[in-house]
Amino acid sequence: MSAAEPRTGARPSGPPPEAWGPLFAIGQRLARPLQRLFAFEATSGLLLIAAAAVALFWANSSASSSYGSLWHTPLGVRFGAVSFERSLEWFVNDVLMVIFFFVVGLEIRKELYDGQLSEWRRAALPVVGALGGMVAPAGIYLALAGAPETHAGWGIPMATDIAFALGVLILLGKRVPAALRVLLLAIAVIDDLGAILVIALFYSSGIAISGLLLAAFGVLVIALLRALGVRSVPIYILPGVIVWTGIYAAGVHPTIAGVIIGLLTPVRAWPGVERESPADYLLHALHPWVSYAIMPTFALANAGVTLSGMSLSGSGAKVSIAVVLALLLGKPLGVVASSALALKAKLAVLPEGLTMRHLLVLGMVAGIGFTMSLFLAQLAFEDESLLSAAKLGVLVASALALIVGLILGRALLATRTLHHSTVSSGVLPPAT
To answer: Would you list the domain boundaries of the chain?
Structure first.
């Protein structure tokens, strides 16, 4: 029996005696999705580590040829003389990852509606911190590997892997206030939005207007179905496929379709229906699939860097070193320096209970790039040697940022203890 539980062994089901029941119930409902999210992300982080380790071992074992053969297995459909075939790796990166980006779009939509980004005073700190955490790593990368053949990788160190980063904070336990996790989540969401814009603007081929028109038609159909009050999720699949097809045909990376559809999803419950909103419903339904299946599959398909024969000199070495330093130094420097400037200029407010020590730890764990960084590496480099060098840099930097983040957290953040009256009353403290 935990010290924080009543002597009967059962947790209290109602609010504390001094709390107003309806307000307490609202707070519990608002906290539940975050608690679920943190649980998903922590476990997902462990699965990502396992998938990356398997991919690295497999790609460098005596069975390495089977690793490459698996992901280059052709998949497709044929209708008479017309066929559409792509590799299994393409299917993972361009189809399954659309679902991942759809969930990202849902999270951005919710944050804009009722989260950290819904009011400027709350949004100022994560927005400034995220922007600094994107600009500084990109600048460091270009300074170290800005040659014509390598400069395309500048977007690789811009994003934070929320699963790993939240996993580190959860491993630090009671040292980490809930406000720090929420701040990290907000920064990561803005990071993702920045990465999405970078993909759309800088990592897409020539834009075909006909494809954009087809995507716009799909968006119009979705908007019309929403206006008509259509609530059945399967009905939205066909226009969603139209949006994906149009984006792909336009030369923009098709994962952007997932973000667009996510941003179109309603965040308020249907009138007259006492249940969660479509955005909440889809987040709860898809998060397990994304966390436990799609992201680990992506890691398995993309983390298999072949180390034998890799040249750690010339352009490849520049790419690896630039990615490592950009994530490991640029991310914390950008997040902490920009946040400190915003606080000093009174443009932002530090959440209650947080100090600059918390921001230092947050900045370090933000240097864990992994999923989005590996994804951007795929888009940045067609040259296999440069792509492998970039992936190696991402893996090394993410591992080091994870380890240093844990060490910093234990060194800088004190373990918080429960107040005696809270323990003796049997009332649980807010989830952290």
So the answer is: 27-71+86-204+253-416
